[in-house]
Design a protein that fits this description.
This protein has a domain at 3-117. Helices cover 39% and strands 15% of the residues. The chain has helices at residues 3-9, 52-69, 99-117, 157-161, 170-182, 199-212, 233-242, 256-261, 268-281, 298-309, 336-341, 356-373, 383-387, 394-409, 428-438, 452-460, 466-469, and strands at residues 14-15, 22-23, 30-34, 40-45, 133-134, 137-142, 145-146, 166-167, 187-190, 219-221, 246-252, 284-291, 314-319, 380-382, 413-416, 419-422, 440-442, 448-450. Helix 2 packs parallel to helix 3. The longest helix is centred in the N-terminal third of the chain and has 19 residues, at 99-117. The protein binds iron/sulfur cluster. Iron/sulfur cluster binds next to loops.
């Protein structure tokens, strides 16, 4: 990109032809020092001509200009030199600035965004398109936006991407998709945190994709999830016609209190409407639940799990962990050990309402339910009948053998290359309780599998007392749907 182009994009500013710097230069007055845990250590004010942010932006602009013109450069990575990159505006730095100076600073900021956006697409020609595939199709990844306008308390998105939600231009998105198509890719995974927040823009993207790929020649997925708050019937139809095949949604919890205390403005009614329409269109849906959030009880987690099991969605389960500096963890005195435990597989959070083994059991239960949800069955059937059949697919037969072992011995086993190994952490009682609560599982293809009889046999088995099962009839049933706000 030529300096004149930058000057045009930068509004009232010229770009020095020799240095590539903006004229007049950008002035920023404050910078902050943060520790490794993101705690604010201090702030420093600079004489405006010496402001480090000013120098960094000028440098960034100069680098973007030079790199754009250099045909030997394949990929440009932009990263912050501190603990956070592009964390949003700090209004304090505007103290003492005139309106004109604020405007000037904003315009120069936009010039930098434009310069970065105008960089040529990353050159992925060193990758073999077939390195990653989605149902056999060469798969690549892209993003159209950064950050998220929502404020879920458990989420770390703002620590990573800042609070300012921003997106690329429609033309640029289409340009990248076209380029990847020409390079042989036939599937794209959008890794945005909130892909469809600007519904109208996203609808327009889909319309243009339909024109370009009228026979769904490209497949699109968004494995990082889509907020169901920004989906409606028209958008779902457009997405499907454009080539979207899967929908990853995040219910998080069907419990109203949990959603409210985690600052999620989502409602169950909106969720059910999206699931129903998407299933009708033919989407494969995965719905995520977070296991072990503060304010969850074992009952409320069972309720969410059962609720999704009765819908034609696969179950995604994410055990909760406290990401340092996420809103939910702020103000806590985290020790080094807490940082080590801040990962999904640690299953580190226990409360008076649930233990680590409870969370683990619910997690494994979702896997067993997904096994049933993916079976090639039609209509309505029940688990005991399915267990009596012979299955030609070896993995399916192994799954049913393990369920038979479970009902006969009261123990769950792993099938390993070294033979069967008992899973000692799995709480059969809790598993049976969840199945009774579910009653009937709805498969991804719409078929129904009743699991209640199987579970009641486990309950009445001599191996357990009803106290161990802990079953309370009518514990949860369907959570009540609330009205949208
Ligand atoms: S909607 Fe998703 S990405 Fe946005 S804040 Fe909530 S959890 Fe994070």
């Amino acid at each position: 990109m030529k300096p004149e182009t930058l000057a045009a994009r930068g509004g009232a500013h010229a770009v020095d032809e020799h240095s590539g710097a903006l004229v007049p230069p950008l002035h920023t007055s404050t910078t902050f020092a943060r520790g490794p845990d993101y705690r604010l250590l201090g702030a420093a004010s600079y004489a405006r001509d010496e402001a480090p942010a000013f120098l960094a932006v000028e440098e960034l602009l100069r680098a973007a200009t030079q790199l754009a013109a250099d045909e030997t450069v394949k990929v440009v990575f932009v990263k912050g030199s501190g603990p956070v990159f592009c964390a949003g505006a700090d209004l304090k730095e505007r103290r003492g600035m005139t309106r004109e100076q604020v405007r000037e600073r904003r315009l120069k900021g936009f010039a930098v965004y434009s310069a970065l956006e105008a960089l040529p697409m990353p050159d992925l020609s060193d990758f073999t398109p077939k390195s990653y595939t989605l149902t056999g199709k060469p798969l690549t990844f892209m993003i159209t936006s950064r950050s998220c306008p929502h404020k879920c308390s458990f989420c770390s998105v703002h620590t990573t991407f800042g609070t300012d939600y921003r997106r690329r231009s429609l033309d640029q998105m289409l340009e990248e998709i076209e380029l990847r198509y020409q390079q042989g890719y036939r599937a794209i995974d959008f890794e945005d945190d909130n892909l469809t927040y600007y519904k109208q823009t996203f609808k327009e993207l889909c319309r243009r994709l339909i024109l370009r790929f009228p026979n769904r020649q490209m497949e699109f997925v968004a494995m990082n999830g889509i907020s169901y708050l920004s989906l409606d019937d028209e958008l779902l139809e457009l997405m499907y016609d454009a080539g979207f095949s899967h929908l990853n949604l995040a219910l998080v919890s069907s419990d109203k209190t949990v959603r409210e205390t985690t600052k999620r403005p989502h409602t169950l009614e909106a969720y059910v409407k999206v699931v129903s329409k998407a299933h009708q269109l033919g989407f494969k849906i995965v719905s995520y639940q977070i296991l072990g959030l503060p304010n969850e009880s074992l009952d409320s987690m069972i309720q969410t799990l059962a609720f999704n099991s009765r819908l034609p969605v696969l179950l995604g389960a994410s055990p909760f962990y406290r990401t340092p500096n996420s809103p939910i963890a702020r103000g806590l005195e985290l020790k080094e050990s807490d940082f080590i435990k801040a990962r999904l597989t640690a299953l580190a959070i226990e409360t008076q309402s649930f233990t680590r083994d409870d969370i683990y059991t619910l997690f494994v239960t979702t896997r067993i339910i997904n096994f049933l949800k993916g079976l090639p069955v039609d209509g309505a059937t029940n688990l005991l009948e399915l267990m009596s059949r012979s299955w030609s697919e070896p993995r399916t037969q192994i799954g049913f053998d393990l369920l038979k072992q479970l009902s006969e011995t009261g123990r769950l086993y792993f099938s390993t290359a070294r033979g069967l190994v008992e899973n000692r952490k799995f709480r059969i009682q809790l598993f049976a309780r969840v199945l009774i609560e579910i009653g009937t599982i709805r498969c991804q293809n719409g078929a129904a599998i009743s699991v209640e009889k199987f579970a009641r046999q486990l309950v009445t088995s001599e191996k357990f007392s009803s106290d161990e099962i802990g079953f309370k009839p009518g514990l949860t049933n369907s959570p009540e749907l609330e009205s949208s706000p």
